[in-house]
Write a structure and sequence with these properties.
The complex is a heterodimer of chains A (217) and B (123).
Chain A (H helix, E strand, L loop, with lengths): L1 H39 L8 H29 L7 E4 H18 L3 E4 L7 E4 L1 H19 L4 E6 L5 E8 L10 H5 L2 H12 L2 E7 L2 E7 L3
Parallel strand pairs in A: 2-4
Antiparallel strand pairs in A: 1-3, 4-5, 5-7, 6-7
Helix pairs in contact in A: 1-2, 1-3, 3-4, 4-6
Chain B lengths: L1 E8 L3 H13 L3 E5 L2 H10 L2 E7 L7 H11 L4 E6 L4 H9 L4 E4 L4 H13 L3
Parallel strand pairs in B: 1-2, 1-3, 3-4, 4-5
Helix pairs in contact in B: 2-3
Chain lengths: 217, 123
């Protein structure tokens, strides 16, 4: 279990830091472009300032993107601070979606977090719970197909916690092989992990959805 | 084959467009493609001698693009751009026939030097 957690933390960290590196690359090129343009002042009449302003705006936007990414990563890094904690489901859903965006982008899948009114909380291992949601997202990303949509939301039903739903792109008429998903190693791992958390995972085919729920009894 | 145009392939549009402008200012004509698939289509319309190719992209990976370009355009020279986590892919790319690989964020002078070498070396 500890190995699984370490691998999970490594994957997420690698993904987010790759994004941060992209942000820094854009900032570097943008700053370099401003240097190039201002160097031209010495040889030619000054370049139009709107290009410089546009590039400076690009830098500001990327700095904001970088701050958001590193804040998210820092919060994630603190997740294992407590082995059991009160977890707000809306916040947990938003966090796992934010951390999973790069993986979704690489698979060309859209990923969204949906908030529920009111704030439901559970007492659980925060890192393992994040890991469970991430595994569900990843499993469905692998079957929904390019240009599909995965939505993650806290459940309304009392005994259910979170629903991860897959929406294939409109032009796709065939449904993914749910049997294949259910017997996959990844789904088995999810069931093992949910059992350790005293939770359940159920898979529905229509709509294609994984629901994480409380184990009763 | 167009010897004076570089095809820049990277899914990060802001990065690609800004780098393209900087290469323009240094005398190069630059085409951009934001995916492996788009790169293949662009080469089919207007093959160029030098391609600067990001390794980590959604959809068709950089290595898959490299393999296709090496097969269909053996005279083209491919310069790979790679992040820290994909250095081994950079090495793999060299074994697959890439001209060179550079780490991102890339130093513009290093990239220009590598592009000039790619344009100047005989096939």
């Amino acid at each position: 279990m500890e190995t699984q957690k370490a691998l999970f933390m490594g994957r997420i960290t690698a993904g987010v830091t790759h994004e941060i590196k992209n942000v820094l690359a854009i900032i570097k090129e943008s700053a370099g472009l401003i240097e190039d343009l201002t160097a031209l002042w010495k040889k030619d009449p000054p370049p139009k300032t709107d290009k410089i302003i546009k590039t400076l705006t690009k830098i500001t936007d990327q700095v904001n993107r970088g701050v958001e990414l590193s804040t998210g990563l820092n919060e994630f890094a603190h997740t294992p601070d407590q082995s059991v904690a009160v977890v707000a489901l809306n916040t947990a859903v938003e966090r796992v979606v934010s951390l999973s965006q790069r993986f979704a982008r690489l698979k060309r899948v859209q990923l969204e977090a949906l908030r529920r009114d009111g704030e439901r909380t559970i007492s659980t291992d925060p890192l393992s719970f994040l890991m469970l949601m991430f595994k569900a997202i990843e499993l469905l990303m692998n079957v929904v197909g390019e240009n599909g949509l995965i939505s993650v939301e806290p459940s309304l039903a009392e005994r259910d916690l979170v629903m991860i739903s897959a929406h294939p792109p409109e032009m796709v008429t065939t449904t993914p092989d749910v049997g294949f998903v259910m017997h996959s190693k990844d789904f088995q791992q999810m069931q093992d992990l949910s059992a350790r958390l005293n939770m359940t995972v159920t898979l529905e085919s229509c709509p294609l959805r994984i629901t994480i729920g409380k184990r009763i009894g | 084959m167009d010897n004076w145009t570089v095809l820049l392939v990277d899914d990060e549009k802001e990065f690609a467009s800004t780098l393209a402008e900087r290469l323009n200012l240094r005398g190069l004509r630059v085409q951009t493609a934001y995916s492996g698939e788009e790169a293949i289509e662009t080469m089919a319309r207007n093959p160029v001698q030098v391609v600067v190719l990001d390794l980590m992209m959604p959809g068709m990976s950089g290595l898959a693009v490299l393999e296709t370009l090496r097969k269909n355009y053996p005279d083209s020279r491919i310069i790979l751009l790679t992040g820290m986590g994909s250095v081994s892919d950079g090495v793999k790319g060299m074994k697959m026939g890439a001209f060179d690989y550079l780490m991102k964020p890339v130093e513009i002078d290093s990239l220009m030097q590598t592009i000039r070498e790619a344009m100047g070396k005989p096939s």
